[in-house]
Amino acid sequence: MAFFRYLIILPLIAGCLLPSGVQALWPIPTTLETGLTTLKISSAFYFDVQVEGAPSDLRDAVAQSQYYLENDKLGRLVVGRGANDTAAFATAMTLSKLTLFLANGAAVEPISSEAVKPLGTRSEEYALVIPADGSAATLTANSTLGLYRGLTTFNQLFYYYGGVTYTLLAPISIKDTPAYPFRGLGLDTSRHYYPVSDIQRTLDAMSWVKASINTFHWHITDSQSFPLEVAQYPELAIKGAYSPQEVYTASDVQYIVQYAAARGIDVMMEIDTPGHTAIMAAAYPEYVACFEASPWAFFSGEPPAGQLRFALPEVANFTASLLTNIAKTLPSHYFSTGGDEINKNCYTNDHPTQQQLKRTGMTLNGALDTFTQITHGALIAQGKTPVVWEEMALDWNVTLSNETIVMVWISSADAAALVEKGFRIIQAPSDYFYLDTGAGEWLGDNPTGSSGPFRTWSEAYTFDPLANLTEAQYELVFGGEQILWSEQSGPQNVDPIVWPRAASSAEIFWSGKQPTGAALNVAEALPRLHDVRYRMVQRGINAIPLQPQWCAFRPDACDMNA
Amino acid sequence: MAPSRYVGILALVAGCLLPSGVHALWPIPHTLETGTTALTVSPFFYFDVQVEGAPLDLYEAVSQAQYYLANDKLGRLVVGRGANDTTALVGANTLSTLTLSLMSGATVEPIASEAVKPLGTRSEEYTLTIPADGSAATLVANSTLGLYRGLTTFNQLFYYYGGVTYTLLAPIAITDTPAYPFRGFALDTARNYYPVTDILRTLDAMSWVKINTFHWHITDSQSFPLEVAQYPELAINGAYSPQEVYTPSDVQYIIQYAGARGIDVLLEVDTPGHTSIIAATYPDYVACFDETPWATYANEPPAGQLRFALPEVVNFTASLLASIASTVPSSYFSTGGDELNTPCYTNDYPTQLQLNSTNTTLNDALNTFTLATHGALIAEGKTPVVWEEMVLDWNITLSNETIVMVWISSEDALAVAERGLRLVQAPSNYFYLDCGAGAWLGDDPTGNSWCDPFKTWSESYTFDPLANLTEAQYELVLGGEQLLWSEQSGPENLDPIVWPRAASSAEIFWSAQQPTGAPLNVTEALPRLQDLRFRMVQRGLKPISLQPYWCAIRPDACDLTA
């Protein structure tokens, strides 16, 4: 099998120093060999898809790749932007073709089917070889998803100057496979609504960081708005969306799911329950406790107050039915029921809750256990694996299926407690990965309030997914994600607040380490991240500049101790 | 004089509570009287310009006002966005005309001419009256600039629902005049370049909140994007690329565009520090160019400062500044003067040789340099503007007319005022828009931005321009500005990082107090700022969200203690 042959050859040369021109790749591949020969892309260049019965989304991916190859027109990030490279163009060999193969015996399925397989069963690895002599480049993988990842890498290899698309680093040999199966980006579309086109653009960018981000964690509803149209419960969006225009219709959701999957991205939806549900009271007032109670701070993490009366059987049944009705329309194996920040004060004086607890002799914890078993049971019956926030495992005594995936968010220090309980975890710690922090307080009448520091790309990049864990626990870490909560964000700033920062976790969880085996390092990474950022700008994403352009053209000149 | 008459009348009613519908106005006018009658704008509404020999830019301003009136289509920020207003609109009186006139005896000049008059001699006041009975509204001022300000206010008064543009607050009587003559916004176009279109869009937004000065920090150590006819090599060698240049016609276009919007362009060519890139053209004029470690020689990379002790550098700089200043209509020109690094000169042979041969100190050489450069500007009819170090850190003879910008700390205003110099408040601890994005230097993952934290709109809004000053010193405070330094900003995030935050200082320096005479207050201001922000979005700008939309349509519900 072609793929494994590379595995054996490449370690022999992996110890060599990477030339600076490898700035292009993000996330950095598992192994990488480059030369010093200039190679131009032929004006007649084409992708030769040697895949019998190639699915249409692979053909779409190839067409997209062709488009990027022609239109990225990214100048090298050096003074002159490549003007000094032209001398080498005259005699350079020309690359005319990239041939795509699947390994022998590989099943041919659409990328979008591969993308939604259970974590750990997806085949994302690929091998990419670009000879220096102009003979055909080859991309080999075990699945169409792997080919898609390889195409993304291929597109990052080339620069443009004066009408010529080229690399200075042929021959190139890459063998690549992700370090962790789950690499996500979380987006909250409830505090503010994002039009479908903004989500699509974000999915595109997710796929570019070498297709590394493979999960769109869609926190679609919350206490402020319920923009999701659910066929069986239409009133939730009619009364809970910010406006009739600010709704994700069933067909919007299907379109987004399909668009994501064709880019190798699984859509993991979250309907946060039983907290973060105040707006459900607009449709079902009798299901929500402490709705809009004030002072809100006593009842809720943020306004408005209001949580599902989870102790009531009719609420448990409603919630289970709601979640399964949504989940069954989605191809993902995963569905998040949230479970963060449940406020107990909300129930202390809630008559229906207290009456029910008294009648059944149950504690609030016992009622939450029942509620969770009913809602999770319904999802499991649909073939879904439940995902929850860390409080469900750490703050409450609730019986969860062993399959449950737990998301760490409050602090990176909490991962250890979760794996000690044997749960599989996703690293989404606010102290490294929250993209919204640092914008100051958004509550009114609080001019000196703080939201903690802004997480720079480099601070996020220093996150160690295995910190404080024993080796036996490593396999419980599925991966991680950066998250944009939208109290202070919306379509106006989604690009600059997310990009290129969200690429940090993409590399942490795809690459894990440098091809040399050395640990990831911010000084090594910065020039490559500049490259990603400038390529994003070329593709129309409004990614923030990381430094003055003077620095971007002069790698390392603006390091702290340069 | 009409404005004074209204001041007299309105004072009688100014004590009454402002109806919530006045959310619309920013900055809040000096005096304001509103009723509770609905008034719709007629589909045949027109602006009746009763100004003999009205200049072209006034007509353009009127068509712009007409455009905003027809196209803002801003729904009121309440649940339902105005759906509940429709009953009041049935049978409401209709406004058909706004009549614009100048006070008798006022001279008729273009707005662009009025906008560049010396500070303290511009006439920005106006009176706007909108009767409730549908009879013609009137806008009266002492200059076309005052009419322009009034048009801006007029456009903020109306909402839209279901095809109808209306106010619920007729009759409306406003007399308005700025508290401070200088209300600015500063943009650094050297660390990263901004295309002309981005600057034009920013000027539009500035005009919406009556900001009257664009402080254009056009060059710095990283790039010299300004094309100077007499010194073309500076941009040829110093711009990031031939495309990232402001040509003389770009600059004239920007100045004209700004002037027509009541905005004076204060150009800054920062000297003698912040000039490293001049070495690309005049290597003999720059000390410690690209010296390492840069941190010894500069506050940020690259190191390099003008050899101000050399007579040829003095002459060059004076000629350069005068050449630039002679092409701009503003009465003001900033020579910068911040962050001058002395170690840069300690081992600089040409500087030390000159100091030794003339037996002068570095301070004296700087004095000679400043007298020469400022003298050349004064000869061009310009008033020099400098950063605070030129007054507080160096012993230099400055003209009494010199305007000093406070930036290091708001604490420093007092020391500047004690020197008897006029000052502009631009303190980093309140007004720097770039703070809080973390360190941008490479290899520094735990670094913070030097002026952490992020300055929220409300923190900026609590700035007191007269803090620590004696009453006799108050008149020295010309106004203030918020600033965007561009190490981590560019066209990609310009809108969201600037707006609506830069409106905070616009209100501080236009209004200074509420119409009731009460001090400005963040709780009162937030709903109005939300309104401004949503109107900006309607006009195509991308300002950040201040709160979840749930809060924006429920004033005060998300206050800290609500």
TrEMBL record, chain A:
<dbReference type="InterPro" id="IPR029018">
    <property type="entry name" value="Hex-like_dom2"/>
</dbReference>
<dbReference type="InterPro" id="IPR029019">
    <property type="entry name" value="HEX_eukaryotic_N"/>
</dbReference>
<dbReference type="InterPro" id="IPR015883">
    <property type="entry name" value="Glyco_hydro_20_cat"/>
</dbReference>
<feature type="signal peptide">
    <location>
        <begin position="1"/>
        <end position="24"/>
    </location>
</feature>
<feature type="domain" description="Glycoside hydrolase family 20 catalytic">
    <location>
        <begin position="180"/>
        <end position="512"/>
    </location>
</feature>
<dbReference type="GO" id="GO:0005975">
    <property type="term" value="P:carbohydrate metabolic process"/>
</dbReference>
<dbReference type="InterPro" id="IPR017853">
    <property type="entry name" value="GH"/>
</dbReference>
<dbReference type="GO" id="GO:0030203">
    <property type="term" value="P:glycosaminoglycan metabolic process"/>
</dbReference>
<keyword id="KW-0326">Glycosidase</keyword>
<dbReference type="Pfam" id="PF14845">
    <property type="entry name" value="Glycohydro_20b2"/>
</dbReference>
<keyword id="KW-0325">Glycoprotein</keyword>
<dbReference type="GO" id="GO:0004563">
    <property type="term" value="F:beta-N-acetylhexosaminidase activity"/>
</dbReference>
<keyword id="KW-0732">Signal</keyword>
<dbReference type="Pfam" id="PF00728">
    <property type="entry name" value="Glyco_hydro_20"/>
</dbReference>
<feature type="active site" description="Proton donor">
    <location>
        <position position="341"/>
    </location>
</feature>
<comment type="similarity">
    <text>Belongs to the glycosyl hydrolase 20 family.</text>
</comment>
<dbReference type="GO" id="GO:0016020">
    <property type="term" value="C:membrane"/>
</dbReference>
<dbReference type="InterPro" id="IPR025705">
    <property type="entry name" value="Beta_hexosaminidase_sua/sub"/>
</dbReference>
<protein>
    <recommendedName>
        <fullName>Beta-hexosaminidase</fullName>
        <ecNumber>3.2.1.52</ecNumber>
    </recommendedName>
</protein>
<keyword id="KW-0378">Hydrolase</keyword>
<feature type="domain" description="Beta-hexosaminidase eukaryotic type N-terminal">
    <location>
        <begin position="25"/>
        <end position="157"/>
    </location>
</feature>
From TrEMBL, chain B:
<protein>
    <recommendedName>
        <fullName>Beta-hexosaminidase</fullName>
        <ecNumber>3.2.1.52</ecNumber>
    </recommendedName>
</protein>
<dbReference type="InterPro" id="IPR025705">
    <property type="entry name" value="Beta_hexosaminidase_sua/sub"/>
</dbReference>
<feature type="domain" description="Glycoside hydrolase family 20 catalytic">
    <location>
        <begin position="180"/>
        <end position="512"/>
    </location>
</feature>
<dbReference type="Pfam" id="PF00728">
    <property type="entry name" value="Glyco_hydro_20"/>
</dbReference>
<dbReference type="Pfam" id="PF14845">
    <property type="entry name" value="Glycohydro_20b2"/>
</dbReference>
<dbReference type="GO" id="GO:0030203">
    <property type="term" value="P:glycosaminoglycan metabolic process"/>
</dbReference>
<feature type="signal peptide">
    <location>
        <begin position="1"/>
        <end position="24"/>
    </location>
</feature>
<dbReference type="GO" id="GO:0005975">
    <property type="term" value="P:carbohydrate metabolic process"/>
</dbReference>
<dbReference type="InterPro" id="IPR029019">
    <property type="entry name" value="HEX_eukaryotic_N"/>
</dbReference>
<dbReference type="InterPro" id="IPR029018">
    <property type="entry name" value="Hex-like_dom2"/>
</dbReference>
<dbReference type="InterPro" id="IPR017853">
    <property type="entry name" value="GH"/>
</dbReference>
<keyword id="KW-0325">Glycoprotein</keyword>
<keyword id="KW-0378">Hydrolase</keyword>
<feature type="domain" description="Beta-hexosaminidase eukaryotic type N-terminal">
    <location>
        <begin position="25"/>
        <end position="157"/>
    </location>
</feature>
<keyword id="KW-0732">Signal</keyword>
<comment type="similarity">
    <text>Belongs to the glycosyl hydrolase 20 family.</text>
</comment>
<dbReference type="InterPro" id="IPR015883">
    <property type="entry name" value="Glyco_hydro_20_cat"/>
</dbReference>
<keyword id="KW-0326">Glycosidase</keyword>
<dbReference type="GO" id="GO:0016020">
    <property type="term" value="C:membrane"/>
</dbReference>
<dbReference type="GO" id="GO:0004563">
    <property type="term" value="F:beta-N-acetylhexosaminidase activity"/>
</dbReference>
<feature type="active site" description="Proton donor">
    <location>
        <position position="339"/>
    </location>
</feature>
